[in-house]
């Protein structure tokens, strides 16, 4: 017997299907509306307003005209340019040191040893300590008049300058102390998901523990490693609290300069331009990260 082919769909049925698709589309739009509206209201609109203010538009209480002078001022005047590169230095140095430390300790946390549970609890303590409180703790310890400086003074030793220095090592120390546990939470979770059989196979083939860590554990953990590094860099790059408390007189981090221009000098247009520069730089880093991730995934596909 021949197979019965379905006939053409009646016009009434086609119109019913089209009406159902339109209704489903409206339902989808209504379901997306709260999330899209929240992003538009609290993300897109403020960013657009900051950019418009940076180019001389959307000013508060005064007539505006389009200009690039505030961006030109950022690049021409050394204090703003040096502030940008100082913030960039803080972000890169803190991220590299935090990542190296977190990778090492995350690998060690995969090994079972006595007291491992206690260590796994203690290393998370900085996560619940606000960064400003951590800065006060570090200042009380390593500042020129801090506890350690007064302690070594009894032996006639001179305490090194670790805070209020040109390179911001005190700031970096606080940020590393605060961000290493955050990185470890992400990286440890990724490392814990690596099958133990893979590591055992590498060891059976003659790889040393260091070679297993370098050529097996780290490459397989790269999604977590790159995500943790990206989050920490963007957070440190725009940090305000710790640099405002612990940095030297020059250079100032760009977020600190923004606060001074906005609150002390009421120069909202220039502060908006500096904020736009920070946002654009972070967006470039984010774009480079996604391109790097896509480049690594495409050959695997």
TrEMBL record:
Keywords: Cell membrane, Membrane, Transmembrane, Transmembrane helix, Transport. GO terms for biological process: transmembrane transport. InterPro entries: MetI-like, MetI-like_sf. One of its GO terms (cellular component) is plasma membrane. CDD domains: TM_PBP2 (cd06261). The keyword Nucleus does not apply. Residues 84-289 form the ABC transmembrane type-1 domain. Pfam families: BPD_transp_1 (PF00528). The chain crosses the membrane at residues 29-52, 84-109, 121-147, 167-194, 215-242, 268-292. Its main location: membrane. It is a multi-pass membrane protein. It is found in: Cell membrane. Belongs to the binding-protein-dependent transport system permease family. CysTW subfamily. This is ABC transporter permease subunit. It comes from Candidatus Segetimicrobium genomatis.
């Amino acid at each position: 017997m021949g197979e019965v082919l379905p006939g053409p769909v009646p016009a009434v049925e086609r119109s019913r299907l089209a009406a159902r698709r339109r209704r489903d589309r409206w339902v989808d739009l209504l379901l997306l509306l709260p999330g899209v509206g929240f992003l538009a209201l609290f993300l897109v609109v403020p960013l657009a307003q900051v950019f418009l203010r940076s180019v001389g538009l959307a000013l508060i209480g005064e007539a505006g005209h389009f200009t690039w002078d505030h961006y030109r001022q950022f690049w021409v005047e050394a204090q703003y340019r040096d502030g940008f590169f100082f913030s960039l230095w803080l972000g890169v140095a803190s991220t590299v040191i935090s990542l190296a430390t977190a990778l090492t300790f995350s690998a060690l946390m995969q090994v079972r040893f006595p007291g491992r549970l206690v260590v796994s609890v203690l290393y998370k303590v900085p996560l619940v300590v606000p960064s400003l409180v951590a800065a006060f703790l570090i200042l009380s310890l390593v500042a020129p008049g801090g506890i350690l400086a007064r302690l070594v003074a009894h032996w006639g030793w001179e305490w090194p300058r670790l805070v209020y220095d040109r390179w911001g090592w005190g700031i970096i120390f606080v940020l590393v102390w605060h961000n290493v546990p955050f990185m470890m939470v992400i990286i440890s979770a990724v490392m814990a998901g690596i099958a133990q059989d893979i590591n055992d196979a590498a060891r059976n083939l003659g790889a040393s523990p260091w070679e297993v860590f370098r050529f097996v554990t780290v490459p397989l953990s790269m999604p977590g490693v790159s995500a943790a590094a990206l989050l920490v860099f963007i957070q440190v790059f725009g940090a305000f609290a710790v640099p405002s408390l612990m940095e030297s007189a020059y250079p100032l981090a760009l977020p600190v300069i923004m606060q001074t221009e906005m609150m002390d000098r009421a120069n909202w247009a220039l502060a908006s331009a500096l904020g736009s520069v920070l946002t654009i730089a972070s967006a470039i880093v984010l774009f480079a990260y996604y391109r790097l991730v896509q480049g690594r995934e495409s050959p695997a596909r």
